[in-house]
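Let us practice reading a record.
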Amino acid sequence: MQPHTLAEKFFSERSFSLSLKLTVFIIALFLYAMLYITFSGGFLSTQEWRLILYFLYIIIFAATFLCGFMPGIVIAVLSSILASSILVPQGLTFEQLSVADLEIYPFVAMYFIIVITVNWFRENIERLKEQLVENERLHQQARHMEKLMLAGEIAAGIAHEVRNPLTVVQGYIQLISAKCKKQCNSEDSFSLLLDELNRANDIISDFLRFSRPDQPQKSQVNPNEVIESSASLIYGEAMRHNVRIFLYPDADMPTVLLDKDQLIQVFLNLFHNAIQAMPQGGTITVYTGYDKHLDLVTIKVLDSGTGMDAQTAQRLFSPFYTTKENGTGLGLSISQSIIHAHGGEIKVDSTPGQGTEFIITLPLHKLTEEQAGGAL
């Protein structure tokens, strides 16, 4: 075990830095050592030492509050040793102790009571602080979601209104293209116009899908079949970009309650992003697995692309965040919403120059016969 790990285990969790905890603990040990050396030298009377024993309360309090329970116990034990040396005459048995000599027990008891009490208060302070931070985070997230909902409603309204004239323009261009096909030398121009209109329509569809997500139409489906279907759909694009797709399905994969079309959309988006991250070609590898103990299906999509730094990976699922020149920044956000709608999670792990890995986990929900008949 590493020294740093041992130190973290010894100094229980506190919001203070490890260096501060080490410094306070070393100072406490130093003060104890100085007091013990002074006592051994016989420079002070017993009455003066009784007063100094009260000073040890402060050292124990500081060590426990700043460093944690175990450092507080260590200082309390050392303080008890010093108190015993001062208050209990050497060589006396228990029967020979006077009432005055028994004063040692309240001192020792108080040392350990201080440790327990201070540690309890400190843990509650830490817990309260964490709760306040979490409440503030949730509050900020709620405000952010309210803004996104408002933006989504506005975007949905605008997108719906813009799509209608685009559809009309697209229809007339197709009609004109058909009429001019034999007379005009402008087939390439019409194709370009139609491609751009289709791209604009796709962007609008993404906005609508983001602002008004469809409810999953779930049925019992084998995730391996979904991935195979997605890979076959992207196969042509992958071949054109010199990208090979390898599938390693779990042979014992059970069926899962999910929306096949929505999951295909998720994997197509992941495959498409992976292809774009490998301009010189590469590989996409997909692993599926089932954990019987956790009752979870795990799907890993790895590529050999350029990867990304931690800051980019952290913002990857944020709406409208994109690193592509012509991207909308909604693909992965929509994919995350789809996975969440299925009760699952999607995470990303990436290193610059070493590729990217997406990890999807889905809970296994088995339908009863009656539910399965209704879903199908």
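A brief commentary: The longest strand covers residues 282-291.
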